[in-house]
Amino acid sequence: MSPINRRRLLAGSALAAVAAAAPRAAWGSTGALAVADGFAGVNALGQNGTTGGAGGQAVTVTTAAALADYVGRKEPYVISVSGRIQVGDEMLTVVANKTIVGVGSTAEITGGGLQLGSTTRPGNNVIIRNLRFTNAADDSISVTNSAHHVWIDHCDLSDGYDGLLDVKRNSDYVTVSWNHFHDHSKAALLGHSDTYTSDKGKLRVTYHHNFFDGTDQRHPRVRFGEPVHVYNNYYRGNSLYGVASTMDAGVVVEGNYFENVAHPILSGYDKSGPGRVVERNNVYAGSGAPETLGTVVEPRTYYSYTVDDPASVPRLVTAGAGVGRVQGAAE
Asked: Which of 218, 221, 223, 276 is catalytic?
């Protein structure tokens, strides 16, 4: 796999101590950490890529109260989550310039979720890595309220109430990479609703090397955003559909591996009007034919990338996606 596709962000000294011990699948061929890739790595809106809490104080939290405290502070922080944290039936509001990273393979947030930003406190420049999310009372992760430059990487998301990872309400410049979605229906919504037209011109998101493992739908389900870049993901046994482009969204779907997915790519879904889709170099193993429509702005307009051989995607993604591949704070 190319170093470009595997770039990772050094988000403070708490991560540096364990870089040499992390598997090659997580850190890239050189074993070194680098910057966030995809749309999260683009310089825009006054933000130079996504740096999270780099330069801020490094802290470790073991309770919901401590987690809620630090993610809501105005200063930058690198927050290491240790062990299983039971959150009440609520979304903890994460404000700007935070890195939230799990320690080892057992860090978990359960019962609640993380919401990036509020209407008065933006959730820009946030990194979430190496965390397990289970049994959220609402969304597991919600990128909302004009949050931009967000990187969600190497997480495990399952058994939520609504969406596992939603991006909506004018959010922009987001990368979702190397995550494992499973045991849930609605995986990844992009775009709030058919009537929320202010999302036009925003919702630029990259999804790469994620494992959509038996989840039913929304991988992603897109409204309005363009370009949305979906590449080198592994889709397995998704009962409703893989990717859906609706409401004149523009989605590029390339280098993915669809296995036993009857409707791998849709243009339009349910009551939502059709969106534009360009597909290329995908594998459809035991799957139906993709729907395509129109033209889409090329992701290379914004950033460089290299697509892995789609035939290798099941092996690469199952070996590298999810928690425990990227270490948190030194243990």
From this structure: 218
